[in-house]
Structure formats: structure tokens, C-alpha cells
Amino acid sequence: MIGHTANEQKLYGKKWDTVHGGYFANPEIASPLVEAILDAAHVAKPTVLGDLGGGTGFVLNEVGQKMEWSPAPALVCVDTAREQLDCCPEPIVALECAVEGIKRGMLIEPGGTLMICMRSVLHYLGEEMLKPDLGHFRSILEQGECLVHQTICFRSEREQAVANLLYDRMDTGKWYPTVSFLIGALKEERFRLADIRPAAPIPLTSAELEKRYGIDHETMLEIGKELEKQCGGHLSEVYHRSRNGFTVYMDYLVMTCIAV
């Protein structure tokens, strides 16, 4: 089941707005995803827009404020964390549920049209479950309906390996695909990629990762040495050593996908 670690849960609620320099609560940073959702929704005119793993409802709230057509879709934020959902502003409907267990009937009445969005969810699925869970998300959509997601993925297998080494050593269960792997997985699970656009990379300092995942400083320094060794002396787009640790830069893409 997708979920945060016990240490991450300590950052739930309004504290989540401050995580990683406020990345997840910054309207400017969120704008590529928000605009992609608006572009797709303007064409599709869904009855319901559901954000899977939507946390505090930040993305849905940004989308709702910018919708300029009527009737606007109902906005449903799906998450497992009550502390996050309790922060959702009106008129967002909070639905406490694991994204892997979501069913179409939980989001929408028969005869309506559905659109779903996600930010930073797919990497929680792990390497083995990415395709099966994409297949599950496809199963709740009818042909022609949209999925818009913002996901960390890498053009280079070398950079992917650096990121995955870090998250494996932190014992998070997260796994990051390459761009080509993710596009292939979407195609296999009957999604057509209609649009792709970049979003701002997220810079993660080793100090922030220590706090988020409950890792002691010495262990994180050892992980940094492993990352540097993984880079093999080459300049890395992901890993950057700093005076007191390191920073990793994780690349995001926003993909609009149509169920086929």
C-alpha cells in the first residue's frame, strides 16, 4: 500500500507546506501541472476530477480557482492520511482511501465522466507494482478519459541509478523510472501519451532527507560517498556534493494520458 513512513507522517497537516522549501505548496512551481490539468479538463469537461494521493488538496484548489467554465467538475481528493485530508479547503471532497484500492464508483455516479490527476505518486508504487497499478488506474477510466500526472523520471539510466541507489539506501521502497520506461509502461497499460511538459526539478538536501526519513547524519554521509562512487567520477545532474553533505536534483515531467 502506498504510504509515507512514520517520520514522514510527522510532517502531515500544515507542516507539509514547508517540506523541501515549500515545493509542494508553491503555486508557481505547481503551475505546469495545474495548467496541464486545466488544458485537459477544458476539452474533456469531466463531471468529477479526482486527485489520487492529493494530500492537503493544494493542487485541486489551484485548479478549482482557475476554472473558467460551468458547470465545473466536482473535486475529490483521495489520500490515506486523515491529517492531510483535514486540510482540504471547500468545496473539495475528501476521500480517505488508498489509491491502489480506489474504484470508479467511489468517485463518480454512473453516467458521469471522470478525470484523474496525480503528483509524486507513481514512485511510491515500486518497480514491481508500477505497471500493475497503472493498469488499475486505467481500469477506473472509460475510453477517452484522462489521467494527468507529474512524476519524477530520468532521461539517463545513469542518473536513474544514482537516484534509486539513494532511495534504496534510505529504505523508502520508492523507485524512479526512466522516461522511456514510463512511457512504455503507460502504452502497455492502454494509455496514449497526448502531451508531455517539464516541471521544476525538486532539490533535496541531505539534511532535509535526514529529517524526512529519520536517518542519522553519519549514515547519510556514508550514503553520499556511495552516490559519489556510483557517479564514477563523472559530473552528475542528480548528485551534487556540498560542504556538509549533498543535494540531489530530481527531474519531473507532467504527462497527459488518454485511456484507449
The percentage of residues in β strands lies in 15-25%
Number of DSSP strand runs: 8
- Main sheet summary: 8 strands, mixed
Tertiary shape: globular
| Unreliable stretches | none
In round numbers, the mean pLDDT is 93
Number of helices: 10
Determine Rg (CA atoms, Å). 18 Å
Please give the share of residues in helix. Answer: 25-40%
In whole angstroms, the N-to-C terminal distance is 26 Å
Q: Decide which structural class fits the backbone.
A: alpha/beta
Question: Helices and strands, in N-to-C order?
Answer: HHEHEHEHEHEHHEHHEE
Question: What do these coordinates show?
Answer:
The protein is an alpha/beta fold. About 40% of the residues lie in helices and about 25% in strands. It has helices at about 5-10, 25-45, 60-65, 80-85, 105, 125-140, 155-170, 180-190, 205-215, 215-230, and strands spanning about 50, 75-80, 95, 115-120, 145-150, 190-205, 240, 245-260. Strands 1, 2, 3, 4, 5, 6, 7 and 8 form an eight-stranded mixed beta sheet that branches. α4 (about 80-85) links the parallel β2 and β3 (about 95). α2 crosses α3. The mean pLDDT is about 95.
